[in-house]
Design goal:
With 377 residues, this protein is mainly alpha-helical. The chain contains 13 helices and five strands.
């Protein structure tokens, strides 16, 4: 009991998947029964008259043996089969409806689920003490109360309908067979309609209860949640998925920082590193985005779109990409090279504001690099 009280945590997706594999899903027998009875009532209302006429005709044929049927033993032996086939054709819609209800009912709550584990023998159920525990458990008591409620409701509905039709029921014996079958069919259709309504009310109460009870049975303790998390974290595929998601999120945030960069230093095709520097908030320029190959191309395209200057300096780009992490300041060894790049960028900004054009540094002024021949205008 204390263990059940400790189960305060909602079931994890893994716990729910494991339960489905074992065949443990929310189910409502009342819902399936309600669908079946409601469908049966609908079929009788739609085809009740035709089915009554066919049943009356079948009854007459069953009571009549023609000379042709007595011509030989084989002909006589075929009579029961012919009557049986005709009877099956009459009740075929109801049989089809029962099959459909068996499929639709589970689909409406819990969905279709086939589990081979549920078919395996469970020897733990042979334990007499465990069996007594299940018999006197709260679940068994609730099932008993629901069963008594269902019997009371349906029994009351059936008794009320039959009592209201007592005059017609008493007169069936005085009617001819065809009229009696039609009257009985009408009474049965009315009875099924009222039973379907009662079952619908019971199912409306049972479905949320079964859903709540299933969720409660799958609840976990906090320790179980922690253990499952640790177990899942240790699986290589889970770790790879987590890294993939983290990298995707980091790349998304990184690309958002490209438009705010002061300059993009490129390889020019294999690497791209975005630098930002604010003298009043930073001690040194900071790498706000970097990437290789496809990511580098995306950084360059985004930089051109937002008119961020691009400088081609292969050794500097490689050094920045390999030695500086995201959102980290550049090391002192690269101060001079980066200062030359930023100096050109700041001159370029002043030129755009109307000052004289900047002097493009010689290739040797950068560590083996050169300025992008077509900086954004």
């Amino acid at each position: 009991m204390s263990q059940d009280q400790d189960r305060t945590e909602r079931a994890t997706p893994k716990r729910e998947r494991d339960a489905r594999e074992k065949g443990q899903v929310a189910r409502s027998r009342e819902l399936t029964t309600a669908v079946l009875v409601a469908g049966g009532a609908a079929v009788l209302i739609a085809r009740g008259d035709d089915m009554t006429m066919q049943a009356a005709q079948l009854l007459r044929e069953a009571l009549i043996i023609t000379p042709a049927d007595l011509a030989s033993t084989a002909d006589l032996a075929r009579v029961p089969g012919r009557i049986l086939r005709a009877g099956l054709m009459i009740v075929a819609p109801i049989l089809a409806l029962g099959f459909a209800a068996a499929l639709v009912g589970p689909l409406m709550l819990g969905g279709w689920n086939f589990s081979s584990k549920a078919l395996m023998p469970q020897f733990s159920r042979l334990d007499p003490m465990a069996g007594l525990g299940r018999i006197f458990s709260g679940r068994a008591l609730m099932d008993l109360l629901l069963g008594l409620l269902k019997v009371s409701v349906l029994g009351g509905i059936g008794a009320a309908v039959l009592w209201s039709q007592r005059a017609q029921l008493a007169g069936l014996a005085r009617m001819d067979p065809l009229t009696a079958m039609g009257t009985a069919g009408s009474i049965i259709m009315g009875l099924l309609g009222w039973l379907a309504l009662g079952l619908g009310v019971i199912a409306a109460l049972d479905v949320p209860w079964q859903w709540f009870r299933h969720g409660k049975e799958l609840r976990m303790t906090r320790q179980e949640v922690r253990d499952e998390y640790k177990q899942s974290e240790g699986r290589p595929e889970v770790k790879a998925k987590i890294r993939q998601v983290q990298q995707s999120l980091a790349r998304s945030r990184m690309m958002d920082a490209v438009p705010t960069a002061d300059v993009i230093v490129t390889n020019p095709t294999h690497y791209a590193v975005a630098l930002r520097y604010s003298s009043d908030r930073m001690r040194a320029p900071k790498v706000v985005a970097k990437g290789a190959d496809v990511v580098a191309a995306a950084i360059r395209d985004l930089a051109r779109e937002h008119r961020v200057p691009i400088v081609s300096a292969p050794p500097l780009a490689r050094a920045l990409y390999r030695s500086v992490a995201l959102d980290q300041e550049i090391p002192a060894a690269l101060f001079q090279a980066v200062a030359q790049v930023l100096s050109y960028v700041y001159q370029l900004r002043r030129w755009r504001a109307g000052t004289p054009a900047p002097v493009v540094p010689e290739v040797g002024d950068l560590p083996g690099g050169e300025i992008d021949p077509a900086p954004p205008s």
